[in-house]
Amino acid sequence: MDPSSLTALINWLIDGARSSDQPSQTMSEACGRLVALGVPLWRAGVFVRTLHPEIFGRSFVWRQGGEVEIGSVDYGFQDSPTYWDSPLAVVVRQGVAFRANPQSPEAERYPILMDLRADGVTDYLALPLIFLDGEVHASSWTTRSPGGFTEAQAEAIRAVIPALSRYTEIIGLRRIASMLLDTYVGNSAGARILGGQIRRGHTDTMHAAIWLSDLRGFTPLSDRLPAETVVDILNLYFDCQVEAIRGQGGEVLKFMGDGLLAVFPIAAQDGDPAEVCSRVLAAARAARSRVHALEYVSGDARERFRFGVALHVGEVLYGNIGGGNRLDFTCIGPAVNLAARLEKIAARLARTVVASETFAGACAEPWTDLGAFPIAGLATQQRVFGLREED
């Protein structure tokens, strides 16, 4: 085994694996280099917990002659027998290495080793990836070579682990930052913030279709139900909308109590307002169906829900607003204010979906003219339109 080639591999990882654009490519190249050094790898995996509201952890699994497979598990995984009966649980809990021959009788207590035995694996080496804060993640390395890894081959794998841990930690932190921003401020806002748009006053003008919705009867509902129940209901209610909005290319910007603000950007150069507004209306209909079907059992009561959504098209100011070092990335402007006023009119008219004249004019649907209404702050009355199917 060439010590200089092993050192080159370690230095390459320390330097950020610059020849690889993605973690999966890094995994593939690192394993390929180990094989070239004489380490007879058959399969290798890196398993990292992450900070995500739905995903407990991610895996990167390399196989000789195949592509790196990227997988994820939800939060139920850490309580499952699959996890607790695996060597990786030992590595993560105790922060120690684990090595076993899947062909030996002692391996029979671990189901994963039985699977590897069927694949002809002769050696299994699991090593901790220890981050700077002491958090422990895991890696696994297997071979089908007769007799398993030699001590020199196993030592080569161990030598790579510190550099692999640093690389994994840095990439993981960057991904966590991106996911948290996506989770709390939205996809495009998160990208802008990571891109450096973090100072107060950093704003852009966006032409967009605007969605502003509200849950009917939320105040009395929150007065008569326990706070925990109200939170459950709000989460279920927002689920009815968020999936529909994102599925049609929209971005949820803000939850305001029971209110939701979302935008559907219209490209400045070649954007098609009619196409975008058609997608917005499809999302509104999908959300309407889901909220109508939503049912929540609380004691002897069976709660049903109604909501309203106002749709408008206009220019919004999109960026950082706040005080000192506490900022909010949001949309403001007359178009957002008009959408908020329209949503109140929807409640007065007992309508689910209402649209401004601008939105209705851009969306070829059978609209009903609901009349002209005075809008606070505007000199002229605004015409409001409803879907004919709701007449």
From TrEMBL:
Domain Guanylate cyclase: 209-343
Entry-linked PROSITE patterns: GUANYLATE_CYCLASE_2
Stored InterPro entries: A/G_cyclase, Adenylyl/Guanylyl_Cyclase_3/4, Nucleotide_cyclase
Source species, domain of life: Bacteria
PANTHER family attached to this UniProt entry: ADENYLATE CYCLASE, TERMINAL-DIFFERENTIATION SPECIFIC-RELATED (PTHR43081), BLR2264 PROTEIN (PTHR43081:SF11)
Name under which the protein is recorded: Adenylate/guanylate cyclase domain-containing protein
